[in-house]
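Q&A log
Question type: sequence-to-structure
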Amino acid sequence: MTVVDAFTSTPFAGNPAAVCQLSGERDKSWMQLVAREMNHAETAFLMVRPDHVALRWFTPTVEMDLCGHATIAAAHVLWETGAMTPDAEIRFRTKSGVLTATREDDWILLDFPALVAQWADIPPGLDDVLGTGIKAAATSRFDLLVEVGSEEKVRELKPDLSQLARQPYRGVIVTAQAATDDEYDFVSRFFAPQVGVPEDPVTGSAHCALAPYWGERLGHTKMIGRQLSARGGIVKVEVKGDRVILGGQAVTTLRGELL
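Response status: OK
Response body:
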């Protein structure tokens, strides 16, 4: 078992994920118990096959269909342990299809599906739940995306998580354009009490929706997002048609044996 901080090059920042390398098949109930024991936002379970790597993701309470930071962590562990050669492209077979990971210097690049958000009405009362005014709302495959007026409003959010958990989505992405003097293009935070994650430190899958959303507004295909959680993290994104390239760094903080 390895714990990796993803979307950061600094230990104890970014988003920690546990990575469990399996030597044989395990059932879903066992993996869910391990994820609950690890108590990270996600635990990745992987098994190396001749032509791909089988990969599944679990929060402490449910299995997920897509997770960016735990995929970064899984790729980092495979290269770090020598299970994959440094120049190898990793093909992960997942519930969201085949996802690939490659390396570019000290960055890991993931090829993920774009989750284009569709305009939606602002849910009644959501302004009060978030504690700030909402400029626009859209829904992606998994989440509700809401844009607020400024970076500072995103940073200062103190949502009512018990009320937020009643929204019929995996999670709620709150975003704004970055301040004009920032080196980033947009900022965000991600709340998912619905699946046992009150606030996710850095969320790769949310950036699959954020990239096309801000790409259309800013007129860019390559951008940098900053997630403004307490731990914080940086995600490079590139929109390529119906795919999004997610770029992140990673650092190992713990290795152990699951008995």
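Response note: The mean pLDDT is 96.
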